[in-house]
């Protein structure tokens, strides 16, 4: 028998599996070109050409036992130094290799830092809508998730409620900007106000409260939008980064944590995070990919392609009568469902061969998420379906 | 502040760090060629040449979005099918892709299966001496580790004590053969007796008890020794495999779990393990390496090189008066310390520039582990130091 905790997951995973099967069946029945799958955040843009070259270079330049062998659990020191230098150049920070821990993607990094920080029953605050996996990551370490309800006018965090709910039990706050699922970028003003609430709470409760910034979408921004680097606004910030989206390498599981020296208890956090990386079974971030990304720190994904998709989909959906916050980053649109029940709306959309994700998955019912990291061609073909879906509600 | 659970780890990691620093200092002081580091299980043999070719082929043959993109959390279906077919060919098993879950090394796989199986307080039995990380992996999921004391005459598992300690609380038993740290291979007779005890306990308690076979050293055997494939002896066996040693790819974190269809609750275990892989933050095994190992299933590491090291070190240590079980697999020697306190013996060895690991790390005080996955040259240079260390006790 599997563990009781995992029972619910199995039920849930069979419904996801059912959805997946349904998508495949729809494609078989109606033709793949007539099914419009907006459900997955799997980058459609190819990795920069430099990635392939860099892999070849690493394999030529270094001995196979170095490239594929064990290194410190925190990662190769030269790779970590290169990441630190690149951040310092871009953001005027003062990191060195001791502040960087290479991780198995951002998901690995978040698990490592939550294992490092959380005692059972300590609270982690998230702002709805939020990436649903945070619930699982926090539960893995017996933490309590505290959800701040969404501000659906702007999808900036609801700071009034945040100030009320932050407490002596709060150990960490997770932010995700540019945001999955809304595409919203938290403004500098928001960040400063959020930091002020956290500083005040630390003073009031005499605790350290960590701000965990989950940043897989940092490089995906449009219209020249700036994404503030959070360690500069709040000392106890820990950054989780991933190359999944910025270099289109989601399958490779490569990212890093930044643990700034000015964070409270930084030395212990660094040491414990390195141990957590080991004992959770990651051991270290994949070695060839560590050395590869170190050669691609200046590379950029084709943001223009996502931007074209964004405009095409956003402008047409508005035209058909949908309501949606204009995304400034990431590759998602968060669209108001045309009926109260977002799951019912997702079911209705399937009749038009549109595969969407219910907002309730992100703690924000009444909305759906569309991932536009797909081909422009598919978006074009899908537009009549969106129009008919809207008309079906008139 | 970091979590209380992690506090001890930080203390412990600073002592490991201190040892690491001491090794570096010794190398600086006496010259790297005069320090003999037998502490790490990092393969000295290069990966087979085919690995590099296979990486290049994968990058040429498949689209970058396939090679580096997301796939099912369990791994690419074609890779899993290839792994299953290779096992069936070698061991006469009847697996298909649904029985294989690609993992972030064996460490990732063990965490996935323990997360899948364990309710808090359930017991996991291990046989001393055992890989110390099992303690952490079991604690990660609030399980209780039950250690069976070593049989130091043969280093086969102590089945008498096993039969006494297996109970209605036992959820799993971990075996590791060829064994780290002893190099012993569990005989077929041992496996059959162990399986019989487990079948009997299942009947008596009306429970399912899983045998978890941790097999990173399966391919490293000497003198034509056979390693029984455990799913054939006990239905509720789950295998954790890694390419770290067999292809010398420890940094790449690539391995798999085998969940046979005949295991109790197999369908739920498969589904839950796939979810556990995701929510623990692994998400999936590194994608390029999945596709690479699928092309290297017939490849073998240079076992002859390890065998030369084994004989050279083993025969000379016996000559100097050390006692040691003759290893039949893996790349470790488990040597009786020349004084009761293995930690004191390790300290004394350092005076002769020998870096060893105390047996108490493996739940077996009074012994030390030597990893002979090093250059033959270093072994030759180290022999006088071993001789002097022995003489210092006369």
Structure notes:
The structure is a homodimer of 394-residue chains. Chain A has 394 residues and is of the alpha/beta class. Chain A has 2 domains: 4-47 and 301-391, Aspartate Aminotransferase, domain 1, CATH 3.90.1150.10; 49-294, Aspartate Aminotransferase, domain 2 (3-Layer(aba) Sandwich), CATH 3.40.640.10. The first copy, chain A, contains 13 helices and 12 strands. Chain A has helices spanning 4-30, 49-61, 64-67, 77-91, 105-117, 133-140, 159-165, 188-205, 266-279, 287-294, 303-319, 342-351, 376-391, and strands at 36-37, 100-103, 123-127, 144-148, 170-175, 210-214, 237-242, 255-258, 332-336, 354-355, 357-358, 367-371. Chain A has a 7-stranded mixed beta sheet with strand order 2-8-7-6-5-3-4, with helices on both faces. In chain A, strands 9-12-11 form a 3-stranded antiparallel beta sheet, with helices on one face. Chain A has a two-stranded parallel sheet with strand order 1-10. In chain A, helix 8 (188-205) links the parallel strand 5 (170-175) and strand 6. In chain A, helix 4 runs parallel beside helix 10 (287-294), helix 5 (105-117) crosses helix 9 (266-279) and helix 11 runs parallel beside helix 13. The N and C termini of chain A lie far apart (50 Å). The relative contact order of chain A is 0.16.
């Amino acid at each position: 028998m599997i563990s009781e905790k995992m029972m619910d997951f199995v039920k849930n995973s069979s419904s996801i599996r059912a959805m997946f099967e349904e998508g495949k069946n729809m494609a078989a029945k109606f033709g793949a070109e007539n099914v419009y799958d907006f459900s997955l955040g799997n980058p459609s843009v190819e990795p920069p050409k430099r990635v392939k070259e860099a892999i070849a270079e690493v394999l030529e330049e270094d001995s196979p036992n170095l490239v594929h062998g064990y290194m410190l659990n925190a990662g190769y020191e030269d790779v970590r130094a290169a990441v630190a230098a690149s951040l310092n150049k871009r953001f005027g920070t003062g990191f060195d290799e001791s502040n960087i821990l290479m991780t198995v993607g951002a998901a690995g990094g978040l698990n490592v830092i939550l294992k490092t920080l959380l005692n059972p029953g300590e609270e982690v605050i998230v702002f709805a809508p939020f990436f649903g996996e945070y619930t699982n990551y926090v539960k893995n370490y017996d933490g309590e998730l505290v959800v701040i309800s969404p501000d659906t006018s702007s999808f900036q965090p609801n700071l009034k409620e945040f100030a009320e709910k932050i407490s002596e039990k709060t150990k960490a706050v997770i932010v995700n900007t540019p945001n999955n699922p809304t595409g919203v970028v938290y403004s500098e003003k928001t960040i400063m106000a959020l930091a002020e609430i956290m500083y005040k709470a630390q003073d009031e409760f005499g605790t350290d409260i960590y701000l965990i910034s989950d940043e897989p979408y940092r490089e995906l921004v449009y219209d020249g939008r700036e994404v503030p680097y959070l360690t500069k606004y709040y000392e106890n910030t820990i950054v989780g980064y991933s190359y999944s989206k910025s270099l289109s390498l989601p399958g490779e599981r490569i990212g890093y944590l930044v643990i700034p020296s000015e964070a409270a208890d930084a030395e212990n956090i660094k040491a414990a995070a390195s141990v957590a990386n080991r004992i959770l079974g990651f051991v270290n971030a994949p070695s060839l990919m560590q050395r590869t990304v170190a050669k691609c720190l200046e590379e950029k994904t084709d943001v223009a392609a996502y931007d074209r998709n964004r405009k095409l989909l956003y402008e047409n959906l508005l035209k058909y009568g949908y309501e949606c916050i204009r995304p400034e980053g990431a590759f998602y649109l968060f669209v108001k469902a045309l009926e109260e029940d977002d799951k019912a709306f997702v079911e209705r959309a399937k009749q038009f061969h549109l595969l969407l994700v219910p907002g309730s998955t992100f703690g924000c019912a009444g909305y759906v998420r569309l991932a536009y990291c797909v081909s422009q061609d598919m978006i074009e073909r899908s537009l009549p379906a969106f129009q008919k879906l809207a008309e079906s509600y008139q």
